[in-house]
Amino acid sequence: MVSSKFDVTGKHCIVTGGAQGLSRGMAEGLLEAGCKVVLVDVQEEKLNQVVAEYREKGYEAYGVAGNLADRNDIDRIFNKSMEILEGKLDVLIPAAGIQRRHLPEEFPLADWDLVININLNHVFIMIQKALKVMLAQPSGGKIINIGSMVTWFGGTTVPAYTATKGAVSQLTKSLAVDCAGRNININCICPGYMDTEMCSNMDQSRRDECTVRIPAGRWGTPEDLKGPVLFLASSASDYLNGTTIPVDGGYLVK
Question: Out of 54, 59, 62, 161, which one is annotated catalytic?
Answer without folding.
Answer: 161
